[in-house]
Each structure stands twice: as C-alpha cells, then as structure tokens.
UniProtKB/TrEMBL annotation:
The lineage of its organism: Eukaryota, Fungi, Dikarya, Ascomycota, Pezizomycotina. It comes from Emericellopsis cladophorae. The keyword Zinc-finger does not apply. InterPro entries: Ankyrin_rpt, Ankyrin_rpt-contain_sf, Asp/glu_Ase-like_sf, Asparaginase/glutaminase-like, Asparaginase_C, L-asparaginase_C, L-asparaginase_I, L-asparaginase_N. ANK repeats lie at residues 448-480. GO terms for molecular function: asparaginase activity. PANTHER family: 60 KDA LYSOPHOSPHOLIPASE, L-ASPARAGINASE. GO terms for biological process: aspartate family amino acid metabolic process. Keywords: ANK repeat, Hydrolase, Repeat. Its EC number is 3.5.1.1. This is asparaginase. It comes from the Eukaryota.
Length: 523
C-alpha cells in the first residue's frame, strides 16, 4: 500500500461516521454479467440488483438507501446506490450503475462504443470520485488503450475490469475483480485509464490478453503494475503513476479513425504482393506491421517487402513497426530493421499492437496534424504507452525491508518540512523539497489526510499551488474529513487559489455542495 495510506487499516476510525467515496459503474457487457441463453452465454441486464445487492461484500445493509444524481445519455437521472462495508482504508464505497443498451460481448465493441464510454465518464465526472467500466475481456485491451488516448488531463481513476467466468458461476473471478476495482477507484486518486484483473492494476494501454481461459488473463509485459492487492492492503507504485501537469480540466476526444488503419503480421514466406494489396487498400492511412523480434522482415535493403513498404510510405501511408514478441521492443539494431527505418517506417518501441492501433487511430483523427507531426507523436509516449529510452534490462532493483522502513521515516519528516515551507509561504523551499525523489511527497499526506495541495490551498499561496499542480499534484485528493483542496480554499476565502484549482479541473463533490455554505453554482 502507498506511503500515505501506510497506517490505513491499523489505526482506529477517526470518527464514527466514516466518509464515503462515490463510484459510478458503467456496464457495457462481457462475461461478468452473462447468463446461459439459447445460443450460449449472453449478457444480462440488472447487474447491480442481481449480482451485487445480494452479496455482503458489495452491500452493507446498514447505510441509508440513497439515489445518486447521474447523467445517462445526456439526461439527468437518479441512480439507486449501494455501499460496501468499510474498506481497509476506513471508507465506504458508495456506487451506482448505468448499463449500456444493448449490452455487448466485447468482440463486438467498436469505436462508437469507446466514445459512449468516454462520454459517460465525462458527463458524470463532477458527480463521482472514480469510474469502473465492466467490459468483456476479448477486446478489453483495445478499449483500455483507446480510452487512454481519448482522455486528456484525466484527474480521476477510470478502471476497466471484467471476468473470465460469469459472476453467477460457482467458481468465478468476477467478485475479486469487481471488488478490487471498486476499492481502488474509491480510495486512490490514480488518474489513469487502468485495467484491474487477477489482483493487479495495470496501465490500460500496456495490457494484452494472454489467456482465453485462465483467471490471469492479462499481462503488461513492458510495464510494471500500477498497483497490487497485497492481503488486506493495496500497494500502489506511486512513482509509476502518471499525473497531468498542465493546469486544464479533462477533455475528451471521441473521434477515432479506426476505419483507415490495419495491422498485418509478417510470417515466413509472406509474399510482397500480399503486403502490397493491404497497403493499396483504398483510403488506407496507416498500417501497423507486426514484425519478427526487434523489428525485422524477410529480405534485404532492396528486398521486395522493403520496396512495397517504401513505395506506400512515399504515397503517404504511415507504417509503424511493432514486435510480434509480447515483451521487449523494436529497434533498428539488425540490418532488416535498419532498412525499414531508412524506408521511413516508424519504430513503435515497446508498444502493444492494441496501443499501436488505437494511438494511430487517435492521431489520425486529430484535426490539423500533418503527416510529419503524426509520425513524430507516434514515436514518443503521450500517455505512458511506450518506454521512451529502451534499456537493456527492464528489471528494477528491489529495496530491502529495512531500507524501505528507513525511507518511510525520512519521507515522513520530509513531508513535515514541506508542510512548514507551505505554511510559511516559502516557494523556494517547496521547490527544493520537491526536486528529484522529493516528487513522491506529492502523493503523501499528514495525519489528517491533508496533501500538499490541501495545505497550500488553505494558506492561500497561489504560486505554491501552481507549482504543485504543474508537478502533477492531484486536485481530487480528499483528506480524512472527506474535504477536497477546493472545499478548503473556498471555505477559508482563498478565492484566487480556488479559481486556480478550478482551472485545473477541481470541483466540489455533490456531498461537499450539500455540506458547505454555498449556492448551487459554487461547484
Ligand atoms: N467473450 C467475452 C467478452 O469479451 C469474454 C469475457 O468477457 N471473458 O465479452
């Protein structure tokens, strides 16, 4: 579990009424909600009532029944809610659900369904702390990759999950996957599109489905998990978590060009005519070439394959090289790869095919981008989807337990020093403390759960708040009393700070609006 929650499940509750987080579950279909029909398994409606309400881990019957305001298909609605018993982090997760109509087997998901998911998140963004998307596993890695590119300046967790067996089956992975997703979405401000499966939270655009039957269905071969369930707690790998560093709210791109892209897997004996036929498809704008090993195709610099690729690139088609291997990266190390590079092929480093296709579709749909700009962006990470500088080894040294506990003490005193610097308005000291490894202080909090942004918001120093936000600090963290930095800034009359927080996407939660002394326009 992350440092700021290191005592989360050992300390007694700080008051008798525990705070609640709000999570919206968006049901799109998949095995998790399937029941046997005349032609085999098919998705069934009413998941919250039939699968969650009867299970004590999803339904703490002691809470008041509450309808939550939500948006569905652009309309204001009220969704029934349930809440979990207290989590190890001393909160309840209150959740409501909207379901797509029709619910789909994910093999039928298309770009318009991705857009519907992205819009559902955007329209409900100010009403919930996090989002859980129920989705079939077949095309889950594609949807997770697509959503990661579609959402710019995401500040809240969007967690996709599903299961290999229906929740109604005797032996199923559904309860573990759903409960883990709900707890993470309602506890940690991990502002990424992520995929939770079999006790691990992965960056969505790094995943690929590796088993059609095992509960361990997904892998993220080139990127460590963002978090792991570890007994009662959850270990978040905070240094890996990406955070927006521009002061702007969430924006969503819903148009992806999936109809003018293709992918083709090279195999021994592949004919140049075959590749040429694909590259000459009418309106084809981009091809993902799945090559051998580090990015090789048969033939030399002037071989027939390299020639048809070169001529397609000259006609304006973008060709990107990704490896057929699940782990590792492509690089022009061998002569065949070097020839492709000289022909103008973009090297996709350690991109998965899913991320390569959706990134290409996303960039092709951006208005006003030239081919050169698209090519340049394809070769660099935009949402953590690729490792910029491939290293010979991707293993990370692990520190010993004593080193970890020493670090924790050092971190605690460093956070205290940061708190003092903020209180004294010493912007230079704040900057110094946050250099290098000090950036980890942005995910920490004091005994009352106040992050650096909470402290700076109350002190009212706009320069310090701006500095924190530009370093990736979240505006959505809540302290133990469930207050956001914006709530504290507004309450203490720090209007300039409140304004800046709003520019960075902060808003009052529904419950803060009800609790605070404002008019309904305050959020
Ligand atoms: N065919 C199912 C789907 O992708 C597989 C699953 O969810 N496990 O919808």
């Amino acid at each position: 579990m992350g440092p700021r929650h290191s005592n989360g499940h050992t300390t007694p509750p700080y008051n008798t009424i525990l705070p609640e987080s709000r999570v919206l579950i968006i049901g799109t279909g998949g095995t998790i909600c399937m029941q046997e029909g005349p032609d085999g398994l098919q998705p069934s409606e009413g998941f919250m009532d039939s699968a969650m309400a009867p299970r004590p881990s999803f339904n703490d019957r002691s809470g008041p029944s509450l309808g939550l305001p939500a948006k569905h298909k652009g309309k204001d609605i009220t969704v029934p809610s349930l809440r979990t018993p207290p989590t190890a982090y001393n909160r309840h997760i209150r959740y409501g659900m909207v379901e797509f109509d029709p619910l789909l087997d994910s093999s039928s998901m298309s770009a318009s369904d991705w857009a519907a998911i992205a819009l559902a998140v955007q329209q409900n963004y100010h009403l919930f702390d996090g989002f859980v998307i129920l989705h079939g596993t077949d095309s889950l890695a594609h949807t997770a990759s697509a959503l990661s590119f579609m959402m710019n300046n995401l500040g809240k967790p969007v967690i996709l999950t599903g299961s290999q067996a229906p929740i109604f089956a005797l032996q199923s992975d559904a309860v573990d996957n759903l409960l883990g997703s709900l707890i993470i979405a309602g506890t940690f401000v991990i502002p990424e599109v992520a995929l939770f499966f079999h006790h691990k939270l992965y960056r969505g655009n790094r995943t690929t489905k590796v088993s059609s039957a095992s509960f361990e269905a997904f892998a993220s071969p080139n990127c460590e998990p963002l978090a792991r369930v570890n007994g009662l707690g959850i270990d978040v790998n905070w240094p890996l978590v990406l955070r927006p560093t521009t002061i702007s709210p969430l924006s969503v791109a819903t148009d992806l060009d999936t109809t003018h892209v293709a992918s083709l897997r090279i195999f021994p004996g592949i004919k140049a005519e075959m590749l040429d036929a694909v590259l000459r498809l009418p309106d084809l704008r981009g091809l993902i070439l799945e090559t051998f090993g580090m990015g090789n195709v048969p033939g030399g610099a002037d071989g027939p394959l390299t020639r048809v690729i070169k001529s397609a690139i000259e006609r304006g088609v973008i060709v990107m090289n990704v490896s057929q291997c699940v782990a590792g990266f492509v690089s022009p190390v061998y002569a065949p790869g070097t020839h492709l590079g000289r022909a103008g092929v973009v090297f996709g480093l350690d991109l998965t095919v899913e991320a390569a296709l959706t990134k290409l579709s996303y960039l092709l749909a951006q208005q006003g981008l030239s081919k050169a700009e698209i090519t340049a962006r394809l070769a660099r990470p935009i949402r953590g989807e690729m490792t910029e500088m491939p290293q010979p080894s991707f293993s990370h040294p692990t520190s010993s337990l004593s080193a970890a506990s020493e670090r924790l003490t050092v971190e605690k005193s460093a956070f205290a020093a940061l708190g003092y610097a903020i209180e004294e308005g010493d912007a230079a000291a704040v900057r110094d403390l946050l250099q290098g490894d000090g950036a980890q202080l942005l995910t920490q909090a004091d005994y009352a759960g106040n992050t650096a942004v909470h402290l700076a918001a109350v002190t009212g120093n706009v320069d310090i708040v701006r500095d924190l936000l530009e370093r990736g600090a979240s505006v959505h963290e809540r302290n133990k009393a469930n207050n956001s930095p914006l709530f504290l800034a507004s309450l203490s009359g720090k209007d300039e700070c409140a304004q800046l927080l709003k520019q960075a996407g902060a808003h009052l939660s529904v419950e803060e609006i009800e609790r605070g002394p404002w008019k309904s326009s305050a959020g």
